[in-house]
Amino acid sequence: MTEPAAHPRTERVDFRATSDPALHESADRGEASLLDYRQLYALWERQQWSVQDLDFSQDRRDWHERFDADERAARMYGLSSFFIGEQRVAVELGPIMRAVPDEDMRVFLCTQIADEARHVMFFDRFYSEVGILEADGLEDRLEQTSKHLNPEFNTFFDEQLHARVDRLAVEPEDTETLVEAITIYHMVAEGMLALTGQHFIIDYNERVGTLPGFVEGFTNVARDEHRHVAFGARFLRDMARRDPRYGDAIQRALAEVLPAADGVLRPKWVPAGEEGTAFYGVSVSDSRAFALQALQRRLKVIGLAAAA
Ligand SMILES: [Fe+2]
Ligand SMILES: [Fe+2]
To answer: Which CATH superfamily is domain 8-24+33-301 in?
Structure first.
């Protein structure tokens, strides 16, 4: 078996086609050609995939015959964060979609709601076909897997993101709150947390040759997330150019949520402030550095100074 290249996915034509600044080194110099909302919609039409086409039979053998109890427990942290995270972002997107100020933006966010539903179903099918938990249906699986999360996960999703979305549900014309919500959702939840976890989890499974059905589906999820983040970068750049107070709203939201986001990247078993292994043999500081570099590239392209 040949060694895979260092980061093969990020060089794939279909990944780079999303225009996510994190995939382009030129973003370090603030240069990027972001797709507009209609181009992002057209790309969504070309990048469809089906959960029902994936084959999890080898994954089932890997999970029960190749992994011991410790490995299964360690993998549950990453899997649970994603499964619950997908469910959270799917439900929070409705009020954001309704609040955006133009129709082309709204049409793209409608496609994103469909994507997030597909991501939930991807995890649901993976869990049930592989036999990850003894559970009866989607709600029960979500409930049982949520025991593996750490408290920062709830602070970030259920307090910080949720507060903005609740506000937008009653005041959809509050554009500053909308800018904060999209900063938290697209730049942090998807751009920093999801894409960092995906990067290291997929790399690890490819390197050791495990969970091939999961890797295939999760790679499709990652491509969707780059497209979502590209929407977020485009939206925030457009808004920051429209009025400097929106640039301030982006910085304010980042300052508030980055400590909790940092905690989400640190699994339960690694004490705060201590170095330890986060995702599959990658240190907490390496995964943090990866997430921050991606954020900084996107902020440069939006036209803002890098966050600390
Ligand atoms: Fe997703
Ligand atoms: Fe997403």
So the answer is: Ribonucleotide Reductase, subunit A (1.10.620.20)
